[in-house]
Amino acid sequence: MTSHASEADIVSPSSSTLLNIVTQFAADLGAMTDLLTLGNRIIHELCHAGATTHGVLFLLDREHECYRRASMVGPVAPALIPPTLDMSHPLPLHLLGTNRIMTQTDSAADIQDHDSGVDTRAAMESMQVTRVVPHLNKGRLIAFSLLGAAQPLAGEIAPNKLLLAALAQTATNALDTIMLYEDLHRSHMLMKRTDRLKSLETIAGGFAHEIRNPLTSIKTFIQLAPERKDDSQFIQEFSKVVLDDVYRIERLIQEILDYARYMEPKLTEEDFNDIVVSCLYFIDVKADSYGIKIEKELASDLPRVMLDRQQIKQVLLNLLLNAMDSMAKAGGRLRVHTHKLVKPGGNVWAHIEIEDTGEGIQETNLEHIFDPFFTTKHESGEHEGTGLGLTIVHQIIQEHHGEIRVKSSVGVGTTFFVSLPALPA
Ligand SMILES: Nc1ncnc2c1ncn2[C@@H]1O[C@H](COP(=O)(O)OP(=O)(O)OP(=O)(O)O)[C@@H](O)[C@H]1O
Ligand SMILES: [Mg+2]
User: With contact defined as beta carbons under 8 Å apart, do 323 and 414 qualify?
Assistant: First the structure.
């Protein structure tokens, strides 16, 4: 049980002490980036300045149009403090109307000036708090704090309404910034999801179109098989075609699943060169058999990058395999070059160039290569493309806040440029 200190024991703060407390508090809050830590810090400091052992912070939940109990300090009985309060509850309404710290001892006349005052006092009593502090910004009550009875301890500063008000205002500014930031982040996520849904719509349409041909061939085979069952050449040739068609459908399904699965990258700090080397290892044998010479130049000062290793491997492999396909007929040179990139503003990026001396991309095709199902590998070459490779590449790079560009010239070759920020934005 806390004993009450005598008046003489309690330190009356000088104005420079008060200024120091507020300045330090503002600096601390400015460094915080999430609402929960911020809320905890605020209610702790307000309790301290209000010389009380317990307090609760309620935050505006705009989505559900209520105030939500966010951070609690000390011996608060959760049963007494409801988890949410309606926006029409007398307590927030009163704070919105007065924009002043209200104490239980506020004069009866003051309370009667506002209809909601009496109900507010009753609510404070039932929640066992003696002070309520509004956090009002631009006419909007974004939060409020409830504080228990003041019990100043010896050596501590005396509860000071002015200090409390200054801290509350500082807290309000910090809360407003972070809530705004979280709103922005939410709408950004929403936009990304909408983008993804839009492209899934395209993909669904494309998929239907893509599997129509193989399905027709499978259907024809099944229809003809009973009457041609003794024609062994027909059965042998057609069943090979049908099997290829089934593989193609399987591959399409797999790629679509890869794409559709929501892939929030799992970022770990990685050595980018290391991933490049492991991808080159995969294609080494195939390159040899195509008569492709691989040249790698890996920068020794490459910054470490936060990335999803699996996803970035998938990006590099897709790009390397495309480069190999372009040189499958005539062989050539595949140059893989990494280097450190310092952007204007000083941000550091890891950059890779994958350059081939293959057949190149026609200018009219260049703007479509990232579109789902755009492929020129329908009939030519040793494998049929799905046209989803670069769509996935683009998606992954976007999710990593990176950049991808391409430069190509028919008959000369193609270079893909990929950059990833060393620390994602
Ligand atoms: N390095 C390259 N050289 C020449 N053309 C390229 C290169 N990279 C991509 N392309 C062109 O872009 C098209 C789309 O590439 P993408 O990787 O999306 O699909 P794909 O390679 O055709 O199919 P899949 O990736 O399923 O094998 C290719 O069909 C090809 O025309
Ligand atoms: Mg490809």
Answer: yes
- Per residue of the chain (425 residues), give pLDDT as tens: 444 445 445 555 667 777 888 888 888 888 888 889 999 999 999 988 888 888 999 999 987 889 999 999 887 777 788 899 999 998 999 899 888 888 877 755 555 556 667 788 888 888 889 899 999 998 899 999 999 888 766 555 556 778 888 899 999 999 999 888 888 777 776 766 666 666 666 667 777 877 888 888 899 989 998 999 899 998 999 889 899 889 888 888 887 776 666 567 888 999 999 999 988 988 888 899 999 999 999 999 999 999 998 889 889 989 999 999 999 999 999 999 999 999 887 889 999 999 999 999 999 999 889 888 889 987 655 567 888 889 889 988 988 989 999 999 999 999 999 999 987 54
Half-sphere exposure of 25 (CA within 13 A, CB side): 29
Q: Which ligand has its closest atom nearest to the C-alpha of 355?
A: 1
Q: Which two tokens stand for residue 64?
A: 């559900």
Ligand 1 binding pocket includes 323 (Cβ within 6 Å): yes
Distance of CA 31 to the CA centre of its chain: 20
Nearest-10 crossing angle of helices 161-228, 389-399 = 170
Tokens of 49: 């300045």
The sheet with strand 348-356 has its strands ordered as: 292-298, 332-342, 348-356, 413-421, 403-409
390 CB less than 6 Å from ligand 1?
A: yes
Separation CA 119–CA 55 (nearest Å): 20
Q: Which ligand is nearest to the CA of 377?
A: 1
Place of tokens 């790698």: 296
List alpha helices for 229-336, DSSP H: 232-260, 272-290, 309-326
Q: Is the CB of 45 under 6 A from ligand 1?
A: no
List Cβ neighbours of 60 (8 Å cut-off, separation of 6 or more): 67, 68, 140, 141, 142, 143, 179
Distance 198 CA to ligand 2 centre (A): 22
pTM more than 0.85:
no
Domains and CATH numbers, the chain: 7-185 (3.30.450.40), 265-425 (3.30.565.10)
* Residue 253 φ/ψ, nearest 5 degrees: -60, -45
For residue 25 the two structure tokens come to 């508090």
